[in-house]
Structure formats: C-alpha cells, structure tokens
Design brief:
The chain is globular. It is of the alpha/beta class and about 210 residues long. The termini are close together. A six-stranded parallel β-sheet has the order 3-2-1-4-5-6. It folds into two domains: about 140 residues, Rossmann fold; about 70 residues, Putative phosphatase, domain 2 (DNA polymerase, domain 1). It contains nine helices and six strands, in the order βαααααβαβαβαββα. Helix 1 runs antiparallel to helix 4. Strand 4, helix 8 and strand 5 form a beta-alpha-beta unit. It binds 1,6-di-O-phosphono-beta-D-glucopyranose and magnesium ion.
C-alpha cells in the first residue's frame, strides 16, 4: 500500500459544518458592516477563528480594539456552537462510516487534523470518535493551516512519518499545509485550489476505491 495512515480534515470533509460557520460569520459581517458571501467564506476554510475574523474585518471601514475582536470572535463561536448542538450521528452518512471502517480494516491508521477548537465537540455530536486512532485539533497547535503543524502532529500521534500519510482536505489552506508537511493530499469538493492535489475525489466514500 502506498500509505500507512490517513489524516482527515473535519469541517467540509467528514461533516458539513461549513454551512454553520457561514451562518455564524454572516451575522458578524453584518454587525461590522463588512461584505460577506460564499467567496469570502471559502477563504476562511481551514483558517483559525481569529485569522478568519481578521479576514472579515479587513472588509470593514471601522477599526477594532483587541477586546472588541475577542468579543466578536466569542459571539460568533457561541452562535456556531448553538448550531452545532443540532447535529447528531445522522449527520455522518453510513457510506462515510463504511469508508472509514474499510480503510481501518485495510490496516491504515486514521487521524483527524482540524484547525477547529470545536473538533472534540463535533466528533462527540457525530458519535465518530471510535473511527480514529488520534485527533489533533485547534486546541493543540500554535499555527493553523497553511502551516503544516496540525498534520505533522497528527502523524506523530499515530507514530508515522509524514511521507507515509495522505491528507484529505477541502480547503486551499489545507492543501498548502499538506505540501508544506511533505504529505500527499486528496481534495474533496469543488473549491478552487492553488495547485493540483495528488487526487481529486468527489467525497470521502470514494477514498477506498482510490487508494486501496
Ligand atoms: P473554530 P477544519 C476549520 O476546521 C474550519 O474550516 C474553519 O472555517 C474554522 O475557522 C477553523 O476550523 C476554526 O474553527 O472556530 O471551531 O475553532 O476545516 O480545519 O476542520
Ligand atoms: Mg475543512
């Protein structure tokens, strides 16, 4: 087999929490008088909460103190967590669970590599922890994607060299992070990418057929 481990991004790959981020950030953008649409939202994928806020605030004519930024980020996260509370195991389709089980049964180590500080809560809502040998998330890193830290740390947590791991991502920042960490990358979805990934797949269910 070409790989010994797979590191999955969470938002946009294992679940579609990106629509909740969109809804929660939209209100922030309205409050600060900044434009917000799908194209701007795309730039926030894989990027940390405070860096995402800075991207939104760059579209506003007002200036904000650090305390105001903290408040805006906290209020956005409160709205986002309220939306996450609606999630249940039904939000991770059986076909995705089957794909994860097939990859695990083939002997691959499976890990999550997410910039999100809410990753543990999301995995709990989905009842998805049992599929993974390790979870590395936004609470464990100093630099978010496109820095490779979350992926290199996830590889170390499952005892593998980065070169033996495949990253599965939906975001440009994630593809760049995988390359910076010396890892191949499979991209799911249709977001524009700065360069060609190793694989382009429709969704996670296509992964076993692509690499096994
Ligand atoms: P939080 P991923 C990322 O998760 C999201 O794509 C990104 O939009 C978000 O800003 C970031 O997590 C931080 O999330 O506010 O929950 O800590 O795609 O790396 O799984
Ligand atoms: Mg993502």
């Amino acid at each position: 087999m070409k790989y010994k481990g797979i590191i999955f991004d969470l938002d946009g790959v294992l679940c579609s929490t990106d629509r909740f981020h969109f809804e929660a950030w939209k209100q922030t953008a309205e409050e600060v008088g900044a434009p917000f649409d799908e194209t701007i939202n795309m730039k926030l994928r894989g990027v940390s909460r405070m860096e995402s806020l800075e991207i939104i605030l760059s579209g506003s004519s007002k200036t904000f103190t650090d305390a105001e930024k903290e408040r805006l980020a906290t209020e956005k996260n409160d709205r986002y967590r309220n939306l996450l509370a609606q999630m249940s195991p039904a939000d991770m389709p059986a076909a995705v669970r089957d794909a994860l089980t097939a990859l695990h049964n083939a002997g691959l180590k499976l890990a999550v590599g997410s910039s999100s500080k809410n990753a543990a809560y999301i995995l709990e809502r989905l009842d998805a922890n049992r599929y993974f040998d390790a979870v590395c998330d936004g609470t464990m890193i100093a630099h978010s994607k496109p820095d490779p830290e979350v992926f290199t740390k996830a590889a170390a947590m499952v005892g593998l060299a980065p070169a033996d791991c495949l990253v599965v991502e939906d975001a440009a920042a994630g593809l760049e992070a995988a390359r910076a960490g010396g890892m191949d990358c499979a991209i799911v979805g249709t977001a524009p990418m700065p360069f060609e990934p190793t694989y382009h797949i429709q969704d996670v269910t296509k992964l076993p057929g692509t690499i096994l």
